[in-house]
């Protein structure tokens, strides 16, 4: 069992989290959130992959042959759909903030509090 995919997932999560914490632009913030979401892709692939097992297409393999878990693949597809939706929402909010206030800098948005 290799721990490399788990290390890559953790590394992507940490890099994305660092970008979120230090971001000074809302679009950059959205990209960093996307990097964090990519870490979940790597994690799901690492959990679902089994060495030497075929894809879960059961038409060409004999009954009882172990295959890669298809549930993890379905979860990954769901994860992709969720990420696209979240990115669309965050980028739409960034566009509206820029239209109304003329800036994408989160520090300059402090005047909205009140």
Short key terms for the protein model shown above:
114 residues; mainly alpha; Helix Hairpins; 3 helices
Describe this structure in words.
It contains three helices and no strands. The mean pLDDT is 87. The chain has one domain (4-112): Helix Hairpins. The protein has 114 residues and is an all-alpha fold.
Q: Could you say what the CATH architecture is? A: Orthogonal Bundle
SS strand fraction: under 5%
CATH class: Mainly Alpha
**Run of helices and strands:** HHH
Biggest sheet character: none
The end-to-end distance, rounded to whole angstroms, is 54 Å
Topology:
Layout: H1 4-22, H2 26-48, H3 70-101
In short:
With 114 residues, this protein is mainly α. Helices cover 65% and strands 0% of the residues.
